[in-house]
Design goal:
- By secondary structure, the protein is an all-alpha fold.
- The N and C termini lie far apart (58 Å).
- The relative contact order is 0.10.
Length: 195
């Protein structure tokens, strides 16, 4: 692919991600083309239908998550700080709005696609390695796993509408409180846990 064609493709996908975060996955294709600064014909040559564009946005989203995780892991002073930074980044309103828009789609549009599944599996693998590192460093509870963090992100980033109003109005506060509960020393003794 020529460099200018690649730039147009990247502009379209980034514009689509922004528009979908603002207006949902049903946003007009013309609005995407306008935001990207390309003609509608160019948009449709690259993406013959809405599902093709949504699939590209899904791929863009999971790659952005992986890149952000790598940045956090390489710039934070320790693994726990990297997890904290990444989870906070992932739940920021703009990104959370896109995750919310994508979460309502049928699996075959994004989640069921092989390319997305592979990219997501690589991201989960790296996230899991970071969790294990934080546990080995002694900063994170050993009874918490990467799935717990993914479920937490799923609630705060993909389904914020399901949060009670006091939590939804201050999501960062409650996200941080929940993360604090994952630190070493925060565990409830097993004798006190209800069955």
């Amino acid at each position: 692919m020529r460099a200018d064609a690649r730039r147009n493709l990247d502009k379209i996908v980034e514009a689509a991600a922004e528009i979908m975060a603002e207006r949902g996955v049903g946003a007009p294709m013309e609005a995407v083309a306008r935001r990207a600064g390309v003609g509608v014909g160019t948009l449709y040559r690259r993406f013959p239908d809405r599902n093709a564009l949504i699939a590209a946005v899904g791929d863009h989203y999971v790659h952005a998550m992986a890149d952000a995780l790598d940045r956090a892991a390489s710039s934070a002073p320790d693994a726990w700080s990297a997890i904290w930074d990444f989870v906070t980044w992932a739940a920021e309103p703009g990104r959370a709005a896109l995750a919310t828009a994508l979460a309502v789609l049928p699996d075959e549009v994004i989640m069921g696609r092989e390319e997305f599944a592979r990219a997501r599996a690589r991201w989960v693998e790296r996230f899991d390695a970071l969790v294990r590192r934080a546990q080995a460093e002694g900063s994170m509870r050993t009874d918490v796993g990467v799935d717990d963090l993914i479920h937490l992100l799923n609630v705060f980033a993909c389904h914020p509408g399901r949060l009670p109003e006091p939590v939804a109005s201050r999501p960062v506060r409650y996200l941080h409180l929940m993360l604090d509960g994952m630190k070493t020393g925060a565990a409830t003794p097993s004798a006190h846990v209800a069955p």
